Amino acid sequence: MKIKVYLLSVLFFLASCNKEKVNSSNSLNEAEKNLLISKKSKSSEAKILSLDKSLKNIKESKNTKKTRELLVKIIYEYYYTNDLTKVNKASDKLLAFSREANDSLNLGLAYKSKAFYFNNQNLLDSSYNYYIKAEKIYLLKKDKVNYATVLMNKGMVQYAAGDNLGADLSLNKAINVFEELKDSKRTYDVLIMLGNVSDELKDYKKAVDYFLQALDIAIELEKEDKQGRKSSCYNNLGYIYIKLKDYKKAIENFEKGLDDKKIIAAKPLLYANLIDNLAFSRLKLNNTNGIKKMFDEAYKIRIQEDATQDIIRSQIHLSQYYSSVKDTTKSIEYAQKALNLSKSKKMAFDILISLHQISEVDLKKSALYSAEYIKISDSLQIVERNSKDRFSRIQLETDEIIEEKDKLEEKNRTLLYVFIGVMVVVSLLFIVRAQRARTRELVYKQAQQKANEDIYNLLISQQNIIDESRTEEKKKIARDLHDGVLGRMFGARLNLDSLNSKQDEESIKKRLGYLEELKNIEQDIREISHDLNREKQVLINNFVSIVSNLLEEQNSSHEAELVHFIDNTIQWDKINNTTKINMYRMLQESLQNINKYAKATQINVEFKKIDANLVLTILDNGEGFDLNKKNKGIGVQNMISRTHECNGIIDISSIKGTGTSIIITIPIETKKEIIET
User: Fold this and answer.
1) Where are the domains of the chain?
2) Secondary structure of residue 258 in the 3-state scheme
3) How many CB atoms lie within 10 A of CB 77?
4) Radius of gyration of the chain (CA)
5) CATH code for residues 1-220
6) Sign of the C-alpha dihedral, residues 205, 210, 214, 216?
């Protein structure tokens, strides 16, 4: 199991604080004195008591630069006493003083401190909001260290909320600054986080690359390494190889991580993770020798360290072990323990893992657990999506607030000119955007018309080919009838006429031979008739042939297995061309999208006639996509448009990781029949 990196170096307050000699009031002197007492105190109770007095003295002091610097130190000391409520309280005072004095530097520090507090309270929205505010200040001040630190911490908040793409963006910005500053330790921290984010995005190749980069830095820092960085990297690499099901490589990395014997005492949880993951990898290779002892040792350490999430992982692995040795009772017992613990701690993702495991070992209740798994999984996807949306709104609202503040500060500018300028720009933007929208719509319609024309031309071309073949076949039949059948009949008739008057045995024998010849001629005519009927059927099924060619091309050109069914009760020759053209185009568009994006291994295509409707169903087991995205792809938009053109209904459902379902229902509008008289 990977080691998640938590908030590191969150505050970094003191580096940028400049001292200045100022005259202080008695309250300020008392505040300094109480702060000094706090630092010298050995018990946490005494420290907090002295800090409380110091904070009270600060509140009674004037708002000066020294007062704010002293307040920063008080926050710093509260942080190390782990009294986060007091950290937030002192941060509120620093925020008020900094706003009053227009002290942007300490305002940024206050924002960071409050963001840290809310993150520890798992109030991610508030934490993200304050990190955004701090980010804007440090960007403006060109304070690279604090700017990159805020980006790193913001990225971790996004990662915790499931906004992995947002986290990836923030962390990449941070690492660029840390690399520029040659800050190896923080570069290492960000690389680990980027590896974890890539893991969540299922980009395992990129995750391996990030962890290898982190490993290079860990090796450079090895002499001063007291954090087990190298072993942590090997653990992370091994975990990714488990995801890739390359258990041999996973084992290699876990064993390398265990080469550092210091981690047993210095980093017991890291050691527990390594031996647990090593045992799990060996289990996957059916090498069960000694793994029970390793699972038990890891489980014991995790209980001692009170590491809830890791305890759940141990229980899952023990359940899997007992399942492998056919001890179903023990397997269910540990799976149930994992489920109970994750539910008691309200750890949604761990509940999912536990439900999956217990559904596999408790076969009697498997259906019940599977249903609960699906329900929770769906709700988590909704929560994750909402979190991303909330963060986007927070970012937007923060930008708007900052923009409004900047406008208010421009007091010396002529308001009239500003207003006129803004109105002109807005008007121009509106005109440009409207024109662009009209242009896009026109281009889209033209492209759609061209596509329809191409498909129609394709069908016509196919029909022409068939007509030409039909004409040639008719000529051949005429030749066969004239040169073959008619010639043989004429010859037989003449010979029979000449023999009619003769009754000898030889003549009777010849007449019987000519009668047999006439039977053969009859059979030839019957076969020609059958051939003509088959030709008619081919013509009727021309659309089916075109679709079949498309499906055969898909099977031959792509790895995904395609299974198809075309209802033979559908009278394709009576369905209008517009419907057939659009159905063909939508099938083609769907297959192209599956090939480009879905990474599917199984595709099902069905054409059915249900009541008075023609139903096209396209299913795949690929990665799926987000249907709630504001801007849908051109392919999806085209399919919707084509369905509406045919007065039909399209139902698209997709869940990430489980595939996509497209059901297109179009009422059958038959071509007008031509009655021959």
Assistant:
1) 1-220, 446-540, 542-667
2) coil
3) 20
4) 39
5) 1.25.40.10
6) positive
pLDDT tens readout for residues 535-585: 444 444 577 878 888 888 888 878 888 988 898 888 887 788 778 888 888
Q: 667: which 2 tokens?
A: 């009422």
User: Which CA distances in Å does 643 have to 294, 551, 661, 662, 667?
Assistant: 59, 21, 15, 12, 10
User: Do the strands 602-610 and 659-667 form a parallel or antiparallel pair, or are they unpaired?
Assistant: unpaired
Roughly what angle, to the nearest 10 degrees, separates helices 184-200 and 164-180? 160
Burial class of residue 191 (count of CB atoms within 10 Å of its CB; 0-12, 13-18, 19+)? buried
Q: How far is CA 284 from CA 135, 307, 313, 438, 584, in A?
A: 46, 25, 16, 58, 46
Please choose, from the candidates 585, 659, 661, the residue with its C-alpha nearest in 3D space to the C-alpha of residue 650. 661
CA dist., res. 15 & res. 69, Å (int): 11
Closest by CA to 144, choosing from 287, 12, 289, 278, is 12
Q: How far apart are CA 316 and CA 320, in angstroms?
A: 6
The two beta strands, 602-610 and 561-566, are parallel
215 exposed, middle or buried (CB, 10 Å; 0-12, 13-18, 19+)? Answer: buried
Please give the model's pTM, rounded to 2 decimal places.
0.55
Token pair in block for residue 223:
């002499």
| 318 closest CA partner among 353, 288, 280 | 280
Residue environment code for 107-121, b if the CB has 16+ CB neighbours within 10 A, otherwise e: bbbbbbbbbbbbbbe
Residue 392, token pair as written in the block = 């986007």
Region 542-667: CATH code: 3.30.565.10
Question: Per-residue DSSP letters for 458-503?
Answer: HHHHHHHHHHHHHHHHHHHHHHIIIIIIIHHHHHHHHHHHHHTT--
pLDDT on residue 446 = 64
Burial of 546 (0-12, 13-18, 19+ CB in 10 A): middle
**CA 134 to mean position of chain CA atoms:** 29
Cα–Cα distances (Å) from 204 to 94, 237, 313, 597, in that order, read: 43, 10, 21, 17
Segment-wise mean pLDDT, segments of 10 residues, the chain, 677 residues: 38 38 67 86 86 88 89 89 88 91 90 90 89 91 93 92 90 94 94 94 94 93 80 96 95 94 92 96 93 95 94 95 93 93 88 89 86 78 58 54 52 58 70 72 63 56 59 62 59 64 72 70 64 49 77 83 88 81 85 85 91 91 77 74 88 84 86 38
Separation in Å, CA 45 to CA 18, 49, 54, 78: 30, 6, 14, 11
Tokens 């590191």 locate to 8
